[in-house]
Each structure stands twice: as C-alpha cells, then as structure tokens.
Amino acid sequence: MAVWSGDVVRIDEDGFIYFVGRNDEMIKTSGYRVSPTELEDVLYASGLIGEVAAVGVPHPTLGQGIVVVVTAPQDGTLDTEAVSLHCRREMPLYMVPGRIIERDALPRNPNGKIDRSRLATELAGTFDEEGQ
C-alpha cells in the first residue's frame, strides 16, 4: 500500500524505511509547520509589496528560519520596516519572518512559477551560528 504524504524516504536492503525529509514547501520552525502561501497571503494583503516568496532556511536553534524575498510595489518604494511591522501585527510570533530581503525580481522556473527551491538554496547561509 502506498500513501502520498509528502515524506521522502529511503528503503535499505533489509526493507527498513528511513525518513529523509519532505517533498513539500512547508517551513518547520520552532516546532510549528508554517505554510509559505499563508504567510505570503498576509503580505500580499498589506499592499506594501509587489511579489513575495517565503522560504525556510537552516537556523541553528529554530530548525528553519523564515525568510521572505519581496519586490517593491508598483509605486516603486518598498518600506521593509512597514512590512516587518505588518507581519508582527498580523501573524503569530512563530510566523514572523526572521529576514525580509528586497530584490528587483524573483527567480522563476521554466513554468513561470516562483522558484522557491532556488531561493532556499541561495539563502541557505542567511542565519549564522547564533541565529543572527
């Protein structure tokens, strides 16, 4: 029997199954599972940004730290302090991004979707050993 759970596993020669990771975009931070799209929806609702992608990157104490990459809104001015304040006001503390990074454009995959895995790889060293 097979169940599609999003878990990535490997099976050894004796038939033992070992959990390797997940094949979804959920961010696991401080023991919570955070949906990147839920986080992004809160940011889009602010009207303070153009586009956004939320990713989880390795963090020494949280498991994954939340990083959001945003583009400026159509008026061309991005106020990261206002974005951060909006997050702190509208989200539970565990969902508030540890970093807000501005870019001119977000990377896209061949299908035209935002390439989260590429962002996660590029941002893997965002937090240092102290989580800063």
Can you walk through the features of this model?
The protein is of the alpha+beta class and 132 residues long. The chain has a single domain (7-122), classed as GMP Synthetase, Chain A, domain 3 (2-Layer Sandwich). The chain is built from 3 helices and 7 strands, in the order E-E-E-E-H-E-E-H-E-H. It has helices at 36-46, 80-90, 116-122, and strands at residues 7-11, 17-22, 27-29, 32-34, 52-59, 63-70, 99-102. The strands form 3 sheets. Strands 5-6-7 form a 3-stranded mixed β-sheet. Strands 1-2 form a two-stranded antiparallel ribbon. Strand 6, helix 2 and strand 7 form a beta-alpha-beta unit. The chain is globular. The relative contact order is 0.17.
Secondary structure blueprint with pairings:
Layout: E1 7-11, E2 17-22, E3 27-29, E4 32-34, H1 36-46, E5 52-59, E6 63-70, H2 80-90, E7 99-102, H3 116-122
Write a concise keyword list for the protein shown above.
28% strand, alpha+beta, GMP Synthetase, Chain A, domain 3, 7 strands
Low-confidence stretches: none
CATH class: Alpha Beta
Overall geometry: globular
Name the CATH superfamily assignment: ANL, C-terminal domain
How far apart the termini lie comes to 44 Å
Overall average pLDDT: 89
Task: Characterize the biggest β-sheet.
Answer: 3 strands, mixed
Secondary structure category: alpha+beta
Can you name the CATH architecture?
A: 2-Layer Sandwich
Order of helices and strands: EEEEHEEHEH
Number of domains: 1
CATH topology: GMP Synthetase, Chain A, domain 3
- The radius of gyration is 17 Å
The residue fraction in helices comes out at: 10-25%
Number of helices: 3
